[in-house]
Write a structure and sequence with these properties.
about 240 residues; alpha/beta; five-stranded mixed β-sheet; about 30% helix; disordered C terminus
Length: about 240
């Protein structure tokens, strides 16, 4: 996939990105509850900037969740509509994985911006605990291992995506980074959270990281527009808790 469009509207940030033969262009707008109005004009603008037509795209990637129910539906529906009209495949990407990927990109671009003036030795691999506020006193969470010194390395899933009360978040043993809006519940989490190398509550998924991940996936991750659906997590967990199921 050499020409990819990526969308994310899973949080308060609305973002679009273009991946063109290894080069990445991204646009981000922090305007909660305006995603439905902003997303398509942002797509049109980024295509215009890069002198690319929709018909030139190989596929469209989107943040498939978890995240805001309404936000996920916006990105999924726009992606489906565009992909159906173009006859191209869709690539769903985990928003939590995108957060881990984004940390790696931010760290490589500017370690001091991530950690401040204090120097950190992250070693060859680093665990990244991703946390998104799921409302209703719950968080979406997953843990990934990242190679922070390798440009654009793909995060490896360690603890699967779940939606849980803050007290049940599984905290890595040591030497990890905690990211995302779910950190607002940090006081309710296990004491091990205090051993994090840093806690970045302002982190959120971005379309640029989604585009990069989609470019690394194999063809088995592609699907038709009709098959692409948001992943809410909470619906699945509720179903699993029903008696007799």
């Amino acid at each position: 996939m050499h020409k990819l469009l990526a969308l994310d509207t899973s949080t308060e940030a609305c973002s679009v990105a273009l991946y063109l033969d290894g080069d990445l262009t991204e646009s981000v707008a922090l305007e909660p509850r305006a995603h439905a109005r902003l997303c398509l004009p942002m797509v049109e603008e980024i295509l215009r900037q890069e002198d690319i037509e929709l018909a030139d795209l190989d596929a469209i990637a989107f943040g498939r969740g978890p995240g805001s129910f309404t936000g996920l539906r916006i990105a999924a529906s726009i992606t489906q509509g565009l992909a159906l009209s173009l006859g191209i495949p869709v690539i769903p990407v985990s928003t939590l994985e995108a957060m881990a990927m984004q940390f790696g990109l931010d760290y490589l671009a500017s370690p001091n911006r991530v950690f401040g003036s204090e120097q950190k030795n992250l070693g060859e691999s680093l665990q990244v605990l991703t946390l998104l506020d799921a409302r209703m006193q719950e968080v979406y969470t997953a843990t990934f291992t990242l190679k922070p010194t390798m440009p654009r390395s793909m995060p490896k899933l360690q603890m699967h995506e779940r939606v849980v009360p803050p007290a049940l978040v599984e905290i890595p043993d040591s030497g990890f980074v905690a990211l995302g809006s779910g950190l607002r519940y940090g006081a309710e989490m296990a004491d091990g959270l205090q051993s994090a190398l840093c806690q970045l509550e302002g982190s959120f998924p971005k379309a640029g990281a989604i585009a990069l991940l989609a470019s690394m996936y194999g063809n088995d991750q592609c699907m038709s527009a009709a098959e692409a659906q948001p992943i809410y997590l909470r619906d699945e967990v509720t179903w699993q808790k029903l008696p007799g199921r």
